Amino acid sequence: MSCIVGVLGGGILKPAGCSRLVADMPMPVQTGIMRASKTVGIATVVMVLCAWVYIALSGEPRLPTSIANGRYSNGCCGTIVLHDGVMTVANQRVDYIVERDKAGPYVLPTAYVGASAHAIVVRSDAYPLKLRIDDPAHPRQLELLGDAADGGRYSFARVNGS
Fold it and tell me: What value does the CA radius of gyration of the chain take, rounded to a whole number of Å?
């Protein structure tokens, strides 16, 4: 007969019909119980670590950087040139990747790239924002967030032939 023995309020509970406690069991049985609980603990730790690694390493799906290649212009702010993972903007070069999330495809630069009423703003010490593209197959538009507190949006249209 198998018995489950527990502790409640400092006393040992022994179900009716059980005549032996874990401490009264022979050494091989005690060792087996301890070995099984240790195995379950190790398996749990391994599963938690595997889940953490999966979550940490499975970011947004990457798209080829070449899909965003082109020259994008806005009358108020200037021009952005994207070419194979390097963005040329405001006389600076900024690396970028292209990814997709639930809202659609976007360009993610390694530095903050935003727009103001008169220029494109690049800050290497600020958190980069997603620059949305309208269509991953044939992008015609790139959208930047405004640098002002109101967070307006600036659309940059792809220049024909680029």
Answer: 30
How far is the CA of 45 from the CAs of 24, 39, 50, 85, in angstroms?
31, 10, 9, 39
Block residue for tokens 């992008």: 139
pLDDT in tens, 12-65: 555 556 655 555 556 665 566 667 778 888 888 889 888 887 777 766 678 898
Angle at alpha carbon of residue 148, lines to 146 and 152, rounded to 5°: 40
- Six token digits for residue 153: 């949006």
